[in-house]
Predict the structure.
Amino acid sequence: MSDEEHHFEAKGDAGASKTYPQQAGTIRKNGYIVIKGRPCKVVEVSTSKTGKHGHAKCHFVAIDIFTARKLEDIVPSSHNCDVPHVNRTDYQLIDISEDGFVSLLTESGGTKDDLRLPTDEALLTQIKNGFSEGKDLIVSLMSAMGEEQICGIKDIGQK
């Protein structure tokens, strides 16, 4: 055989997919779907009847979970759609830096410093006001398809 050594580059993740396939006809309202490469939450689903030679089609109206843009897609109900793996994690807010980044306390006691403040104005003012008042805040972080964003906030009292 050969005496060559094979070198493999470490990629950083275990190769887990960012999405999984699901039949279009089984995706319901408030579920998740990938439309135009963006993770979205389904707000409306309508199914058309089969035509003379065709499939029943599902018409999805969904909102991007990070940008809040409305997207639509029409897929035959027997075909598979990509569904993103969406995770919600809660972290305690430690600090807000002047350049718009937040410092969060992880479960293991470390810090997570690579997140920006949310772009949603109401959530942004809620976080800034609560932090300046010295409240203990828990932020909910939504992550899907390699993106992360703060999507909610809970007040657990004074420090």
Observations:
- Residues 33 and 83 are 4 Å apart (CA to CA).
- The mean pLDDT is 84.
- DSSP finds one helix and eleven strands in the chain.
- The helical segments are 121-132.
